[in-house]
Write a structure and sequence with these properties.
Layout lengths: L4 H25 L5 H15 L3 H19 L4 H10 L1 H6 L1 H32 L1
């Protein structure tokens, strides 16, 4: 697999194209979602539904994905600073935050369990 700078730039271009496509789709349809999130969903659909999704992911996206995953911890620094800076505000709304965290964790576990169950059934049939 080619992991040179051209491969990294090419895979970054793919990511940016999907992000722009998501932004355009949001602008055209007035969806109440951020454009990059819609672009990420489009990319996921392309990887899952596309006829060469797995091969395409390996060849086109992995060079930049590996680099971005190495830098991922740096993205948590601004969030951590924000939590510390707004600690009094967070304490003022601790009940609502705790409820949101519990509900979202339960929803995540439920969706993950349903997805895993579906994938295991599909694998058993194959």
């Amino acid at each position: 697999m080619n992991r040179g700078p051209i491969a990294v730039i090419g895979s970054l271009v793919v990511l940016v194209v999907f992000q722009i496509a998501g932004g355009v789709l949001v602008a055209v349809t007035h969806l109440p979602l951020p454009g990059p999130v819609v672009g990420l969903v489009l990319l996921a659909l392309a990887l899952v539904i596309g006829p060469k999704g797995r091969q395409w992911r390996r060849e086109r996206l992995q060079p930049s994905a590996d680099g971005l995953l190495v830098l991922l911890p740096l993205l948590f620094v601004p969030a951590g600073v924000g939590v510390i800076a707004y600690l009094p505000v967070l304490w003022a709304h601790i009940g609502a935050l705790a409820a949101a965290l519990l509900i979202s964790a339960a929803a995540t576990l439920l969706v993950t369990a349903l997805l895993l169950n579906s994938l295991l059934r599909r694998r058993a049939r194959a």
